[in-house]
Specification:
The complex is a heterotetramer, with two copies of chain A and two copies of chain B. Chain A is an alpha/beta fold. Chain A has seven helices and 13 strands. Chain B is α/β, with parallel strands linked by helices. The two termini of chain B are 16 Å apart. The chains are: A alpha/beta, B alpha/beta.
């Protein structure tokens, strides 16, 4: 049964120091703005964050990094035009980076949720990102052994949730949400709206409620509005 | 032709060479231009790594939806017959060999088809790989679009990459402003030249090229 | 109680012990009976391996839809809030440890929680495993429903399974007609007896049991 | 671009001897009746068949086995009350059986479609089905190494297809269809109906058209009708 916290702050209030936090989104699409802002307001530190990127501008995930709350980030693409906060921390050795090819990142999270102990992927074989990793030749091709990623908490954004926690997403906002939801001990979701049980067609549910622990309603905000609100 | 190709003309060449009905991923940056030259007759379906097949042109005005972006995080549109899926499924499409062609930029391509396009390897450079290695490992064919020389005149089509690799032996074609190269087990074959000749190319490169 | 439990009473005991809000998979055969005794207050969500959460009771008359069956291929119904998914996703739910409880039958259970329920190992027997090993490996808790003895009086709760294993150290509880056993790292604890006593059980079994 | 063969026979006419054929369905649900019947009428033999079961009664897959066209079957649950054709062949050593736990079967097919070279699963560790397989302890738990399954052809049933080959399924008829569609060189789908491009909401597509090669319309038939028609 899902919990329905009153607001994003209540949803993340029990987050512990040293947690691994999976954060959905690909750029702005699917980013759980409200939950990330709430994460910034709570006091958990020494976090490991898993996200495709490493924050943009001065708000949200970037602000969390800037506040010194993140020990390590696991991502595929930290370098962006406005990733100055990460850039500074990385150059001064104040944050650990585990760089993972994007598909390997998604697959490691899926493996975490699906109980797979490890898998061999061709991605990255023969490149510096395979350095130190076990490599095996299967049917004449080189594969790299990769291990699952588990989160203590996943923070994701979906479009609608029903009272069972079943989720549907919007367009490319879906991205990492469905796999992250499966791979965390506690999955916290912000949605545009909660609908009655029975009002989502069982054929179109993307994330079944079994993967969802808490749902909060949070209005969609664009990055620009977010920047304005925090400036 | 009498002049080197512009970026748009290179994109046009790539578009022309994509077989009808192909499923294609266009890398961020310059390869995105290719979509401008695909014709409706080609029935090419575009994949974007962040979870969509059937991606349409860049969104304009009211079409802009922050939940609908391409791999470069630019707002795009959806075409009839599109489908959305999550990231693990999207990269299963890539890794599983289901894309006919991907088009990427490059710092260097080796004669053997090795690709270097994610990291300069310079001290202090912040590494970022995104989906490049997945595309290199997974697409049936990897086409590269790049200038043939760096700004200081060093060839980018090389015997062996000096930059960190993205993928091994994956590139099949290289589209440049001066020529289109097909990389085959028998060597590098020059398919077309623009404002230059095969002899001039052979002289300026450290790799063997044939007609 | 003065008599051994019937199958239905065993199912009732299992149903009673499932915590509210649990996600549960009921194996084919006898465990299916458990669903008859789950109350609406319990808000238990049933998973079926062939791709559904929120499975309802067996379908009757016009409700029968050949596309809507349970793991035993019996026509069932869907409850409000159900969800369908494909087989790889369904078994990711199982293998990934997302089910709170699964209930299965067994040929044998060992004191250490090993489960044998897929194969008698007899020569000429046709082996069939289905989803049993995935449930054994994946569910947070595995409850077994079985008679405590075979028809010829041999105990099925044993020091070590002689039948081929389904899973190692996975069973946490065994519901039988004579007693409910909790398998713990400290040994087998008898929680309730029906028509027998702990002393009688201790005497008839080759494994140590405590109150 | 998908092909639209005129009938199920045309759809499977180029199947070659020695092919590996993935056949969807869990019992009757999702079974591509018309394609399996067409398979029976074509002359390809020495087949390896991947299906959850090993045929029921005397028709469909069971008839294919009975006709001696299948060298090997890879499945999780061959033994059923009416699997007498398989039973007889198996007992007389006339068919090879590779028995795979159901979740491992689904995951091996997914791995085949997703380009994963091999994976470690906890399912089956310590049991006879791990015999002869590589076992590895990861984080204190035993895992068995399993390899992908690829098909030359997949035969599956879906509910609707659009002109791009995008598919949606019906209820538990979905089962193995979506993973099998990804794992075969040629994926052939029978559907209740083909609808116009643009009439399936992109959010609810389960199998994107990229995985689909041929679509034929075939009316749903129950097993009983099938038995009657073939008797």
């Amino acid at each position: 049964m899902i919990e329905l916290p009153t607001d994003p702050d209540a949803a993340v209030s029990d987050l512990k120091d040293g947690s691994t936090v999976l954060i959905g989104g690909f750029g702005e699409a699917g980013l759980p703005f409200a939950l990330v802002d709430a994460l910034l307001r709570c006091d958990a530190g020494d976090l490991t964050v898993v996200n495709n990127n490493a924050g943009n501008g001065d708000t949200g995930l970037a602000a969390l990094l800037g506040a010194g709350r993140v020990r390590k980030i696991i991502c595929s693409y930290p370098r962006q035009v406005d990733s100055w906060i990460f850039d500074g921390l990385y150059r001064s050795g104040k944050i650990e980076l585990e760089l993972v090819p994007q598909g390997t990142l998604a697959e490691r999270i899926r493996a975490g949720g699906a109980g797979i102990g490890a898998f061999y992927t061709p991605t990255g074989a023969g490149t510096p990102l395979a350095a130190g990793k076990e490599v095996r030749t299967i049917e004449g091709r080189q594969y790299v052994l990769e291990y699952p990623i588990h989160g203590d908490v996943a923070l994701i954004r979906a479009h609608l949730a029903d009272g069972m926690g079943n989720l549907v997403y919007r367009k490319t906002g879906r991205n990492f949400g469905p796999v992250m939801a499966t791979a965390a001990t506690t999955t916290i979701v912000e949605v545009d709206r909660i609908v009655a049980i029975g009002s989502l067609d069982p054929e179109i549910v993307v994330t079944p409620g079994i993967f969802v622990d808490r749902v909060v309603v949070a209005e969609r905000r664009s990055v620009k509005e977010s920047l304005g609100a925090s400036a | 032709m009498s002049a080197y190709l512009t970026r748009s003309e290179m994109a046009q060449m790539v578009a022309r060479d994509i077989p009808a009905g192909s499923y294609v991923n266009l890398g961020i940056g310059q390869p995105t231009l290719v979509s401008d030259y695909l014709t409706a007759d080609q029935h090419v379906v575009l994949h974007t790594e962040n979870g969509m097949l059937g991606m349409g042109p860049q969104a304009e005005g009211d079409e802009v939806d922050p939940d609908l972006v391409n791999a470069g995080k630019i707002a795009v549109t959806e075409l009839p017959g599109a489908a959305y899926f999550h990231h693990a499924d999207s990269f299963a499409i890539m890794r599983g060999g289901h894309l006919d062609i991907c088009v990427m930029g490059a710092f260097q391509v080796s004669a053997g088809g090795d690709l270097a396009n994610w990291h300069t390897g310079e001290p202090g450079a912040i590494p970022a790989v995104g989906g490049a290695m997945d595309l290199a490992a997974g697409a049936k064919e990897v086409f590269v679009m790049m200038t043939l020389f760096t700004k200081d005149g060093t060839p980018k089509l090389v015997p062996k990459c000096t930059y960190p690799l993205t993928g091994v032996g994956c590139v099949s074609r290289v589209y440049t402003e001066r020529a289109v190269f097909h990389l085959t087990p028998d060597g590098i074959s020059v398919k077309e030249t623009f404002g230059t000749s095969i002899d001039e190319l052979a002289e300026s490169l450290d790799v063997a090229v044939v007609a």
